[in-house]
Amino acid sequence: MAAVAARLRGAPPDDRPPVEARLHRPGASFVTLETDGRLRGCIGSLLPVRPLYLDVARNARRATTDPRLPPVTRADWPGLAVSVSVLTDPAPLPVRELAGLVAALRPGLDGLILTDGRRRATFLPAVWRKLADPDQFVRALLAKGGWPDGAWPDGMRAARYTSEEFTDAPPREDIG
């Protein structure tokens, strides 16, 4: 949350190391910004490549200017929900077709990564709140990734992960 507020104020990021040891270990995270249930930004990392505290701060700053959406502004801050999802390492799913993937999913628990070598798309476990049916979940992810008509191309690979989610919900004071 502090990284988002700093970005909106135009202040430099505070990358001082936190006390908690867990945050110093490599971690993967996504930061999701929403206003009144509408997505304002969602940026993240699927693999742990930097200390978790730096990954979260980086993704928080980048989520304010998600290229798919209008930038988040200072005026948005009082109504902005900030969620951080800390991901487990992805585990491959040994499936070869759409029906097998749908059957293997654990609704409400699994995040999903699909890749065919050229494209990659993911849905966080939180997406189950909006797409509770496994078939709809997978088909929406295929559409997000640009695969035509929910097609399952040759060489498609799937992996699942779980996440721990932390949310700071509005309302809050203006950041000035």
TrEMBL record:
Region span, Disordered: 1-21
Pfam family, one: AMMECR1
InterPro entries associated with the record: AMMECR1 (IPR023473), AMMECR1_dom_sf (IPR036071), AMMECR1_domain (IPR002733), AMMECR1_N (IPR027485), AmmeMemoSam_A (IPR027623)
SUPFAM superfamilies according to UniProt: AMMECR1-like (SSF143447)
Comp. bias intervals (Basic and acidic residues): 12-21
Coiled-coil portions: none
Ranges of residues in domain AMMECR1: 1-176
Entries under Gene3D superfamilies matching the protein: Hypothetical protein ph0010, domain 1, Hypothetical protein ph0010, domain 2
Matches recorded under NCBIfam families: AmmeMemoSam_A
Record's protein name: AMMECR1 domain-containing protein
Species per Swiss-Prot/TrEMBL record: Rugosimonospora acidiphila
